[in-house]
Design brief:
By secondary structure, the chain is α/β, with parallel strands linked by helices. It has two domains: about 90 residues, no CATH class; about 180 residues, von Willebrand factor, type A domain (Rossmann fold, 3-Layer(aba) Sandwich), CATH 3.40.50. Helices cover about 35% and strands about 25% of the residues. It has a six-stranded mixed beta sheet with strand order 7-6-5-8-9-10, with helices on both faces. A four-stranded antiparallel beta sheet has the order 4-11-1-14. A three-stranded antiparallel beta sheet has the order 3-2-13, with no helix packed on it. Helix 2 packs antiparallel against helix 3 and helix 2 runs parallel beside helix 7. It is globular and about 55 Å long.
Length: about 300
């Protein structure tokens, strides 16, 4: 027969064993869960696990949850083009960014502001809308004439900042559209954004036409593709600022963060297909990243080699 002290030790041992088992099960479950971002055709559209399907590599995932910005914490990063070419229209960029922040200041939203100059610089990282707006108002253009800016470096920096945040991740690019000397390709940005389930939305702002002969887009072509590949939207130099802000707001409120589990799919990057018979048209990130610490780097190297 065990003495009281031995009894206590035995009970303590079994408690530790049980807690350890529960923690291991929880960790294993989390490792099997993956995230993707989708956008519905309306902020009010209800989407739940019962009316959404995700498939990849011929396997159908099991939807764990579908959350909108009212349920999930949200982080919005804004990349502001401060190149010399934007000196005459920087105020329009600021107005778009500041007005958009005011639309989400009363929610559980974190704001990140990245200045895209000759060097990318994060100038605000805050949950207070007024602080974010103040940092935007202090932005001044880079000196020089007709100098192109490494915008993709600023975008990559914003994605990295967002990757540290839980919940919904949104990246707003307000820029002339073209990149110079970043050393980062569109395909690398796409792989990074999709790996971190970041939805990218672009508003081109320019004091000139963004289209060349035959109305073909000559500015922001890759940013248009980046938005399409990450459930975002692309706005081509619309000079009606309230309309631009409204479109961005509606698109953000239409985002949904999907958590799902899937078996029988190898680690790495795979094409993803979403479908629903009852919620209208869905826009979704094109690739899903089955959890693997080296997945993003492998995909970037593969896509860079094929570029």
């Amino acid at each position: 027969m065990l003495c009281p002290r031995q009894n206590r030790r035995a009970i303590f041992f079994w408690i530790l064993l049980f807690v350890g088992f529960e923690a291991a099960v929880s960790a294993e479950t989390n490792e099997l869960q993956h995230n993707a971002v989708i956008r519905t055709d309306s902020p009010d559209r209800e989407v739940g696990p019962q009316n959404l399907a995700i498939t990849t590599e011929g396997r159908r995932g099991s939807i764990v949850s579908v959350m909108d910005a009212s349920k999930a914490p949200m982080s919005i990063a804004l990349v502001i083009d401060a190149g010399p070419n934007q000196s005459g229209i920087l105020n329009r960029e600021k107005e778009i960014a500041s007005s958009l922040i005011s639309k989400f200041s009363d929610t559980r939203t974190e704001f990140i502001v990245v200045r895209a100059g000759y060097q990318a610089a994060t100038i605000a990282n805050t949950s207070t809308g007024s602080v974010a707006v103040g940092s935007i108002q202090d932005i001044s253009p880079e000196p020089g004439q007709k100098s192109q800016i490494p915008v993709y470096k600023a975008v990559a920096s914003a994605i990295e900042e967002l990757s540290l945040r839980p919940g919904m991740r949104v990246l707003i690019i307000i820029a002339e559209g073209n990149d110079s000397r970043s050393g980062i390709s569109y395909k690398q940005l796409r792989a990074s954004a999709q790996a971190q389930h970041v939805s990218v939305m672009t508003a081109l702002v320019a004091d000139h036409s963004t289209r060349g002969s035959k109305a073909i887009l000559s500015y922001g072509w890759f940013l248009d593709s980046l938005a399409a590949d990450t459930a975002g939207i692309f706005i081509d130099n619309d000079r009606n600022t309230p309309r631009v802000v409204n479109r961005l707001e509606q698109a953000i409120r239409s985002l949904r963060l999907v958590t799902f589990e899937i078996d029988g799919v190898s680690l790495g990057c795979h094409k993803m297909r979403t479908s629903s018979s009852s919620v209208g048209r869905l826009h979704a990130q094109k690739d899903v990243f089955i959890r693997d610490p080296d997945c993003q780097q492998r995909c970037c190297r593969r896509e860079k080699a094929s570029a």
